[in-house]
Write a structure and sequence with these properties.
mainly alpha, 12 helices, 0% strand, transport, cell membrane
Length: 257
């Protein structure tokens, strides 16, 4: 069996297994981010009266919030599910000789399908309320998707390989994702952060991706090129480290599983 065919089969099985027996099926890929959006909107907009700031003064808080949640959900879903991917596929790994590195790629691709569906619905909603916001600049979408892919799969290969030997990694990653979420200007604008802490948040590689999504949707512009280059560099480094670590440790997977 070729690698591409194996990848397709694993992806098909993952999608099928996730929604088997579910009445709503693929609709859950929309319900999850939408429910989170409603909760954050109610807490931060209705109760706390959070303001976006002058930079996005003409943008609805709901759309601004959703634009930030979209890439984060792709990142967090793929990373959290990939952490246990080797353990979940232990029977295949012990029986077959194949490049197990494709497993985190399968998880990212599965999450990406949900992401693209949600993005399309978001664009439709955005066009309904503000037709001028939808333009050809949206074709630059891959500029942010590529570093997001490298960052996510790189970290996924690191956590998935280490989790085989240190099962606490699977528990720790949930805490890490929660902390990372609140350390990223997703539900609050960076203008709300004291100036002495802003520089720290800017070094967060997810910041330029999330800000990039917002600028693409609401300003038809690219994020600061230096910020994008920094995130791309970090993403490439983590991807290379993750691939190297996974390739080295996978030789011992069958002995531990």
């Amino acid at each position: 069996m070729g690698i591409l065919q194996l990848f397709k089969d694993l992806l098909k099985n993952d999608i099928k297994n996730r929604y088997t027996g579910s009445i709503l099926g693929l609709a859950w890929s929309i319900i999850h981010p939408l429910s989170s959006l409603l909760i954050y909107y109610f807490v931060f907009s209705v109760i706390l009266k959070m303001k976006i700031g002058n930079e996005y003064a003409d943008v609805s808080f709901t759309f601004w919030l959703m634009a930030g949640i979209l890439p984060w959900f792709l990142f967090s879903e793929a990373l959290s599910r990939s952490t246990n991917i080797v353990l979940d596929n232990s029977s295949i790994i012990k029986k077959m000789v194949f490049p197990a590195q494709i497993l985190p790629f399968v998880m990212f691709s599965s999450a990406l399908i949900n992401h693209l569906i949600t993005v399309i619905l978001f664009i439709i909603g955005l066009y309904t309320f503000n037709p001028s916001a939808v333009n050809m600049n949206l074709l630059l979408f891959p500029v942010y998707l590529v570093p997001l892919f490298l960052l996510t799969t790189g970290l996924s290969m690191i956590t998935a390989s280490l989790n085989v030997f240190l099962r606490d990694i699977g528990q720790f990653i949930g805490i890490l994702i929660n902390v990372w979420f609140y350390m990223t200007p997703i539900i609050y604008p960076i203008s709300a952060v004291p100036e002495e802490f802003r520089e720290v948040l800017v070094w967060n590689p997810m910041y330029s991706i999330i800000e990039g999504y917002r600028m693409l949707f609401f300003k038809a512009e690219l994020v600061d090129i230096n910020s994008l280059l920094y995130t791309s560099l970090i993403s490439v480094i983590l991807f290379a480290l993750g691939y190297a670590l996974f390739s080295k440790l996978k030789k011992s997977f069958a002995d531990v599983l």
